[in-house]
Input
Amino acid sequence: MKAFLIPPTSNLFEVIVGHLSGIGRDYSSNLVVFPGKRPAHFLRKALAERDKSSVVPPRIFSMDEFIDTIYGEVLGHRRRNLEPIDAVAILYDLHKTSPDPLGSKSFLDPDSFFPIGLKIYSDLEELHIEGVPPRRVREIDPIAGEKIPNATARRLQSLSYFYEAFYQKIDEAHYSTRSSRYRDVSSNFESVKLDPFKKVIFAGFFALTESEKQIFNVLKRKEETLFLFQDGFGMDLSEWKVRAEKEETPGRPVIHFYKSPDTHGQVLGVASLMRDERERGESLNENTVIVLPTAETLFPLFHHTLSLFKPDQYNISLGYPLQRTPLFGLFNNLMELVISMDEDRLYVPYYLEFILHPYIKNIYFDGRADVTRILFHTIEEALTEKRSKKFMSLSEIEKDETILSFFKERILSVDPGASLQRIMDHLKTIHANTVKRMLSCKNVGNFATRLREVIEYIYKKSTARLHPFFYPYSESFATQLDLISRSLMKEVKFEGIGSYFNLIKKVMMTAYTPFAGTPLKGVQVLGFLETRNIRFDKVFFLDVNEGIVPEMTKEDSLLPFKVRRILGLPTYLDRERLMGYYFDTLIKGAREVHLFYAENAEKDRSRFVERLVWERQKEEKKSDDKSYVQAIQYSVALQGKRPRPITKSDEMVRFLENYFYSASSLDTYLGCPLEFYYGYVLRLREREIVSGELEREDIGLFVHQVLFDYFKEKMGRRLSEGDMNLKELEKIIRGRFEERYGKDPAGEIYLLRRQIENHLKDFVRNYQIPKIKETPTEIMNLEHRLEVEKGSFKFVARLDRVEKRGGRTTIIDYKTSANKNYLSINYHKLDRGNRESWGEAIGTLQLPFYLTAYSQATGEEPEEVDCFFLLLGRNRIDPTIELPLFRDKTEFDQKFGDLNHIIFSLLKEIVDPRQPFVPTRTPKNRCDRCIYKHICTN
Output
């Protein structure tokens, strides 16, 4: 055995090539083993470059591949390799039969057991590969020499039960796991013959498991074995007789430090540096690496940095979490939709989220995706019109008259060759191949197969396969689903469909999609551990923050830190030492290094960066690091721009002169003329959506409809107490609820119905009946629409209720709010001659506007008409819910003329071509809730 310690500046692969022996260009009599897979590519390249021709390479393995080869080819074991889900299935069976199950009754179902099962499996594998016998786990108290807390002791007893039973069970069933293969190989390695190989080289190893140590101890005694270690931070070779090679070209890398407020600043910094280097003609090839310790940075980097290169000029090789992919988002939408179903009825907001996902709304119809997009946006528009109906079945959606009429209007005009029947068949086909496919299943395996069929349907029938990275996403999803469908859990049955979804979701949340590229061509984009053993000339290392490099999370384990130390298992401290070593060798092996980190209130730079900065400070005898660290900053203008006024064109003035003005349009203009311009001149409207929330506006419209239905048969005659039938009111409410929300409302909808029933019954009992008894009342009009002209202006108004009370006409407007502040007029602040006071004093001009319009339409004098709001949102319903426009005749005489003057002054202002639409005078109170705030300052 020979062992060498080479400096980090040396190229490991060139050193290995120097030790290989072959016959001509045939090096197959050599065996080389690395910790990971990636170095094999670089060794083959180094060998071919040295010989300047094609060669027969050595047998090259990662350590895992070496173990599997010895296990199968040399020891002759033919056992099925357990996937994690298979292991969890076995552990679940053991859990069910355990005399003292972990967590008692908390994990009785497979889907709830899965996450804890993965932790158990991970801990068992660590215990097994480190050679810890089960009795040591059981007897932890005496080993520790002190009392272990009861909760921890019980958890360890459960774990020891799993430990003994699990490996016994997989042995009986002829299965294997990674640690069981390591243990079998290490226990029998004395008998392993490596005679066919003239030279056996193990290169680049740092931290060894107990099983690896046993194998290395056997290899030490073999003459043909060579160990190559790279020097670096934390390397301890005290047990080895190692000869250190001298560094032929001593030198240190040029290190640059960059701080940024966030990740995007780092990405833009890398892009700027690479752009500059390309302009200078410097090469950016496979000797350049961009290190991403967190996968979240990949897509900002892809869009802002890698876009500088052609696709064949870079290589991405790291795992990206499946749960961060758009395909997982679609799966999640489908899961929420199916789980939220009420019998056969779908929750409409979730249905719309699903069909409007880009992968669904771009399914082809006769080779065109635009028709399906129009189809689903048409459904969205139609369902938004009836947005109070929260649940609908697929058959209801497929037959809904509103949707069908919208189809005729929108789709057939785009594709005249498509018939309504073909469009409906297309919709039914999409439903059948997505939602309906997931509504029933036999077991876990069948469910996974059905979900895979959904993904395959989307792949074949939509534009999804044209989207960047959809293929690797779908391939990874399909691989996981295939594993599940063939796993030991495939026969498990659940009572509810939600449990199948939950299990699949938890499996997917542990999976990654690999970005496999060409490791020997182009700029390399790698995860941190992917860089081990490889020397790069230029290193761009992002997110070098504490908590990321090194990772600060404790072990995701059932074994506490102290217990892990006692049992000889690796702890987070060992993981930090490992990351420190790989960071050190990567940096020292480079010529040029750029380290990026975020610095803000929540993030600090890594201790590894601190050490590098401190070493330079000591060397240069400087007390601060300002001259070393470059700041990447954004130029942010925090001061908002004042919205510019909009001048009126001649065409605009003609439009305004012929416009029918409503009370709400005048209120809008009084509050903000610019808002009036966007809303009533340009007619821009906020896009309505179907949400899970019960909109205040919808509740108000519902209450108005119920009161109209209740009083419409009582018009034209004097009301009596006998007319106030509460059973009739209840029937109307329930009938309207069924129309809007479907039969048998549940949850929030049911509570809303009860609340409205109780509130409107209180309105009839505690307000309407006392008023009828007090004053003779006759309803003259309900939902009365007026269109009138006064002067040169046109008015439009809809009066909720007009009645005669004791001979006086009364205009009533229902309000489902309880707050009178937004409805009142403060006459003390109102100054007719001061334009500035109008907006501050007037909550709304609705009632004076109604009074003016009604008087003009009927000829009744304004002083003969009463106006008030009814505040139906008050907790307590009684006669005080009335909010009148004027308290008495004196106030009318004093103030109606002022209000009338203000209404017509505003109208004249609106049509005045010299008066532009200006921004509000009170932006603090108005702009935050304005729907046009994002466009009015542009």
Q: What stands out?
A: DSSP finds 35 helices and 25 strands in the chain.
